[in-house]
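Handout, section 4.2: multi-component inputs.
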Amino acid sequence: MGLPLLAVTTTEFPDGEIKYRFEEKLDGLEVLLVQATYPPSGKHYMQLFLASHHLNQEGAKVHAVMPYLGYARQSRAFLPGEIVSLGIVAHLLRSVGVQRVTTVDMHSAEGLALFSMPVYSVSAIPGLAEYVKTQVKLDDPVVVAPDAGSLKRTEAFASLYGAKFIQFKKNRDRVTGRIKMETDSVDVKGKDCVIVDDVITTGGTVAASTELLKRSGARKVVSACVHAVLLGETYDKLMKAGVDEIIGTNTVPSVVSKVDATEPVAAYLRTIIAQRK
Ligand code: R5P
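Output:
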């Protein structure tokens, strides 16, 4: 973006606690504080809270740029007694002086509504669709929404690609987290398929979708997601389930980070900055 980078020294103590030292005068500055809160989410949130509070106390205006916003899935109490974690995150961000939040493909619109400051979710779906269309050899693919929550994103991807889309019915056990695909079979015999989702964490959703597609005779299965969190052995698990290729963006560090999400974020931030002038 051609903006100056603020000098900061970070120290991590042997017990994992972090310390920051900002070496410049901050008064009157507007700071884009870039921090993705992927796992370990608690630690990354703590970094963001410490830095934001200090910047704010020193007179800077803090705009948190969070390419991946952890806890976004807990935007409501799905079972009685559950905590709406995202609401608390939004509250904490405000209390440490964050005045604006920009993120990428926030899990749900419902989540955005929990923030009391301006919040905007930039979409990395156009970049993913462009990459799959130009870099992955597919023959007249079918685009797949693995669950109801991914429908809008999948529709957008399919329309940008110029392909048809289908939607699966997924059921996740709210206690065990186990996934059951309620869709039994689909008409994809001999076809290439692209599963589109916002995030892959344990890979349960993509694995179950791939098994269903392969059982239904699909030829090639590609998984395209924005946030490839891919915990532990998830990459191998998905390959074993029959996924031919996984494509993610660089909102979180990952081995499948093939699409650059920084450009659409920078483009949005430029419009915000231009409005101030
Ligand atoms: C769910 O609503 C999300 O959009 C993803 O489908 C889900 O969070 C992915 O998690 P996992 O990889 O553990 O199935």
